[in-house]
Design a protein that fits this description.
Layout: H1 8-73, H2 81-104, H3 114-148, H4 152-243, H5 258-307
Helix pairs in contact: 1-2, 1-3, 1-4, 3-4, 4-5
Length: 308
């Protein structure tokens, strides 16, 4: 369908609206991509990285508690009850606070990544269970040592019993904590990869949008002026030929827009001028014939007058 079937105003309006729509869609897509990137980057900055940093401190607090407990339960231990109580109390308190901080950084999972959320919750529950088992064993061992003070034989048996059980309990709690750390490291890497992928996708989308905008805009910039200029040139050529007295130039009318109507009017005007000229020419010929007849009649009359 030719563009000349539509009015000039409509063509210009539609062309500008199309370019504006492409610009709005491109901007909207860029905004959406930026929001998505910002969300992923925010998860890394506010959840994954703080969780990893906090897990490092949690492991340190657990290790401090285990070191003090092992020294207290060791046969050749040098840590007295006061020092043991101070170190283990500080370590337990700090670990509890760090655990609360980690619990607060747990990701808010959507339906799409619910499996990831379930996995983290399972790891966290496993850590809590093994941590509590370790603390119970450490507390019972310390209490048994205190109760056995003064009886070297009983004290030796207590220390041997708990010294053989404590390392395994600590390893399990530490391993559970390390599993959470590995989970967060993996999540951080995946989130960073997702951010990089979204940035790449945003760049590709922006390039595609730019190319489409250039193609559509270029086509409109070429088609719309051409659809106006060509009929105008034709109208100018027709007007010039009429002004020069050439009424044989045929008008080729295409479209129903304002310029098509102008060409159609010029065509009708040229047709009317041809009829007028034809009528004038016919009238002139009639006048010439009548004049010739009158002249001939006068000549005949003059001749008859001379004869008489």
């Amino acid at each position: 369908m030719s563009l000349n079937q539509f009015g000039i105003r409509m063509r210009i309006t539609v062309g500008l609206a199309a370019i504006l729509l492409l610009a709005v869609l491109s901007a909207a897509n860029s905004l959406y991509q930026n929001i998505s990137i910002k969300y992923e980057a925010g998860e890394v900055a506010t959840s994954w990285i703080p969780a990893i940093d906090n897990l490092g401190r949690m492991k340190a607090y657990l290790s401090d508690h285990y070191t003090a407990t092992s020294d207290r339960l060791a046969i050749q231990g040098n840590l007295d009850a006061t020092g043991f109580q101070r170190i283990t109390s500080e370590s337990s308190t700090n670990l509890a606070k760090a655990t609360e901080i980690y619990a607060a950084t747990l990701l808010t999972y959507s339906d799409e990544n619910a499996a990831q959320g379930d996995a983290e919750k399972a790891l966290y529950a496993d850590y809590q269970a093994k941590r509590d088992a370790y603390f119970k064993l450490a507390k019972d061992g310390a209490q048994a040592v205190e109760e056995a003070m003064g009886d070297d034989n009983v004290l030796l048996l207590v220390r041997q019993q708990y010294s053989s059980n404590m390392p395994e309990a600590f390893k399990k709690a530490h391993a559970a904590m390390d599993a959470i750390l590995q989970f967060n490291l993996k999540g951080t890497a995946e989130a960073a990869t997702a951010v990089a992928d979204k940035v790449s996708a945003a760049e590709i989308t922006m390039l595609v949008s730019l190319v489409v905008s250039l193609l559509v805009g270029g086509a409109l910039v070429w088609l719309i002026p051409r659809s106006v200029i060509d009929p105008v040139k034709q109208a100018v050529a027709i007007a010039q030929s009429i002004a020069e007295g050439d009424l044989t130039h045929r008008v080729k009318v295409q479209g129903k827009d304002e310029l098509g109507q102008l060409l159609s009017s010029l065509d009708r005007m040229q047709t009317q001028l041809v009829e007028v000229v034809s009528n004038v020419r016919s009238g002139s010929e009639s006048v010439a014939t009548a004049s010739a007849e009158i002249a001939q009649g006068n000549h005949d009359l003059s001749a008859r007058t001379e004869q008489q």
